[in-house]
């Protein structure tokens, strides 16, 4: 039975009343969201484990749900899928570790040559800019930093290195903060999977408890909106992981074909940063160009940039648009604005979560507009015989938390 909107049956006075109610509702929701964002920024230490745990949940809940639908008890299915995923990750690390280790050892062996080439490139570039622009560029700090000689280009490096040493000493507190941050990151990768496992086991009960917060007359509507939000956010995270994997694989393969050193590491960097929509290939291209120029000259650097440009075009025109269209349904311009706004509000985590946050806002506001102003019945459960939550089986058949 199709849902037929009946907003054209509403008299003008009723529509005006609905607009007023919806406007005040949106104002109230905006205030609540602003307060929530402020509180989350104050306790942003919970973001890393929570975001990683949600990512694990969105990845593993679909196979767990399929096992539960086949009669496997949820705790057994959750633990089994979790252990299997952990095993696959360990095997992947074991398989890639020798290659990564070789590239790291190669970098350590080649570092003196790279250092000299980098110093020479800096000097040549500065001289060229001085000739072209008629300006003077002081390259002494970089030259001394990359040189083992006590004197470089007529400059006493002892004075320069002393200044650099004092600058580093002045940043001791920041270095300590970096060490603490690394320790916190290690704890995140321990706490987040455990948190995800507990949530995966109790997910149906948590969903039911969350629905019980709403009045009985609105639980079906809340379940419908929650399902849409889960599909959008879960689809976004799963899609971005798939896109990041494809971008990293294509980048590494392209760098390998042109003979770029450390091709696997640079490809992994490009893939990782592609978790931020539309940004990853640019970072991978910059790193590839830098390493290629230092190791093999400007020609290899340009080849690396071209490889990443091709990967970017494939990503921007074939891969990411499909993910955005099928999950968050946002225009690329809206995605870029969401990234900028998220980065301004909450830094890295704002950039990472800005797009799904905008998608959530779009779904909620669209639902309120359709149901409260236009009078449409958009929920598939709105015409149910009793205004209760969806049947119990939807707790297990729902593809997303």
Question: Short summary of the structure?
Answer:
The chain is mainly alpha-helical and 401 residues long.
The largest sheet has its strands arranged as 1-2
Q: What is the percentage of strand-forming residues? A: under 5%
Order of helices and strands: HHHHEEHHHHHHHHH
Count of helices?
A: 13
Query: Which shape, going by the Cα principal axes?
Result: globular
Radius of gyration: 27 Å
Quickly give the structural class. mainly alpha
Which sheet architecture does the biggest sheet show? 2 strands, antiparallel
Helix share bin: over 70%
Average predicted confidence as pLDDT: 75
Beta-strand segment tally: 2
What this model shows, in words?
- The protein has 401 residues and is mostly helical.
- It has 13 helices and two strands; from the N terminus they run ααααββααααααααα.
- It has helices at 12-42, 47-69, 74-133, 140-145, 157-170, 172-201, 203-211, 219-258, 263-273, 280-296, 298-326, 332-373, 394-397; strands at 151-152, 155-156.
- Strands 1-2 form a two-stranded antiparallel sheet.
- A hairpin with a 2-residue loop joins β1 and β2.
- α8 runs antiparallel to α12 (332-373).
- The radius of gyration is 27 Å and the shape is globular.
- Residues 1-7 and 381-399 have low confidence and may be disordered.
């Amino acid at each position: 039975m199709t849902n037929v909107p009946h907003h054209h049956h509403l008299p003008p006075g009723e529509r005006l009343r609905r607009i007023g109610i919806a406007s005040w509702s949106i104002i109230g929701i905006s205030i609540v969201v602003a307060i929530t964002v402020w509180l989350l920024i104050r306790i942003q230490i919970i973001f890393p484990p929570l975001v990683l745990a949600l990512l694990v949940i969105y990845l593993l809940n679909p196979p767990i749900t399929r096992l539960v639908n086949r009669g496997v008890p949820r705790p057994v299915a959750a633990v089994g899928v979790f252990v299997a995923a952990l095993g696959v990750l360990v095997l992947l690390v074991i398989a890639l570790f020798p290659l990564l280790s070789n590239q790291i050892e190669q970098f350590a062996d080649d570092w003196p040559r790279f250092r000299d080439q980098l110093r020479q490139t800096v000097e040549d570039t500065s001289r060229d800019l001085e000739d072209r622009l008629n300006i003077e560029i002081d390259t002494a700090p970089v030259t001394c930093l990359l040189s083992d000689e006590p004197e470089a280009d007529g400059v006493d490096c002892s004075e320069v290195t002393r200044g650099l040493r004092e600058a580093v000493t002045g940043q001791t507190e920041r270095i300590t903060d970096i060490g603490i941050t690394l320790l916190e990151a290690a704890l995140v990768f321990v706490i987040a999977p455990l948190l995800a496992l507990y949530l995966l086991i109790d997910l149906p009960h948590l969903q039911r408890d969350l629905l019980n917060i709403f009045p009985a007359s609105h639980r079906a509507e809340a379940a419908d909106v929650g399902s849409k939000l889960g599909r959008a956010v879960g689809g976004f995270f799963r899609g971005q992981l798939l896109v990041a994997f494809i971008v990293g694989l294509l980048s590494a393969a392209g760098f390998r074909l042109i003979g770029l050193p450390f091709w696997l590491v640079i490809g992994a960097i490009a893939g990782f940063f592609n978790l931020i929509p539309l940004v990853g290939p640019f970072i991978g291209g910059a790193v590839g160009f830098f390493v290629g120029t230092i190791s093999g000259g400007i020609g290899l650097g340009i080849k690396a940039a071209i490889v990443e440009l091709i990967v970017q075009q494939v990503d921007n025109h074939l891969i990411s648009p499909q993910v955005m269209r099928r999950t968050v349904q946002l225009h690329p311009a809206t995605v870029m604005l969401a990234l900028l706004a998220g980065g301004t509000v909450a830094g890295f985590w704002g950039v990472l979560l800005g797009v799904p946050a905008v998608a959530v806002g779009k779904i909620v506001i669209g639902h309120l507009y359709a149901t409260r102003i236009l009078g449409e019945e958009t929920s598939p459960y709105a015409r149910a015989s009793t205004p209760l939550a969806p049947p119990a089986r939807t707790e297990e058949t729902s593809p997303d938390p």
